[in-house]
Amino acid sequence: MIEIKNLSKTYKTADGAVEALKNVDISIPDGDIFGIIGMSGAGKSTLVRCINMLERPTEGTVVIDGTDMVQLDGKALREARRKITMIFQGFNLLMQRTVLKNVCFPMELAGIRGREAVKRATELLEVVGLADKANVYPAQLSGGQQQRVAIARALATSPEVLLCDEATSALDPTTTRSILDLLSEINGKLGITIIVITHQMSVVESVCRHVAILENGTVVEQGEVGEVFSNPKTEAARKLVFPEGDTDPVIARDSEEVFIRVVFNGAKATATPLIAQLAIDKGIAANISYASTRSIGDGSYGSMLLGITGGPENVQTAIDYLQQMPGVIAREVPVNV
Q: What is the pTM of this model?
């Protein structure tokens, strides 16, 4: 268990004090994949660097399996950090070393050398699908392959926690998907707690079980990903979940159209599209004003904005019909006129 309590970080600058984190409280269960998400400047990277004490918090505690990291220094802190490894957006590989020697490097620092290190590194390259790249150099690899090497290197000291700081931000969507699949596989096989720092809700919904949303250094919302994604309660969460904007739609005063926002959180695909099925089964034609959905596995994620005519009875019938589908949330959206 990782328990972050009353965590604050203030930087002193020439222009005065800057509060990067303010009284952050987060609990992360062992073996979880936990997302920390927010817009640029929200404090995400500062928070993740406070977890492994690359940044010393101004106040608060970071307790990992009963040990308060804030109280550690010197040798004790170095020992603890071997159990809390990190991967970055920029990969941070040693370009003059081969792939194999990059993975061996943290083991060398820990006093593990020779055949034992090579054996462990070879096994990890097999885990990340790069056994055939052991003797090439990072510059000869694609971005996705370099990140796989970085993951193998992070696993070299058998960590209990893996921190991922915007680890997929520099990758294309297909490669991002493969890296997220790899992280999920590693979590399942090794039981490592993974903390994913990102500004992309799509990353969180793809791989995380729980999420905390940061805004201006404060946790404004947290919980299970499905709940936060389906029913965001704060403006910061709505901006991330509904990037097209969750502001109320503007329509003409004399319009009879009422808007419903439909959120898909893993809804299973059907032979007939859901909105078409609504028209077939209930005789209600919906005008799709906006839609942003995508398929992940056999589930659909995203949202759409529907315009419904025919009065309150039609609107409620449509909401009830849509919400009977597993993985679908529907609600009426108030309108600006």
A: 0.79
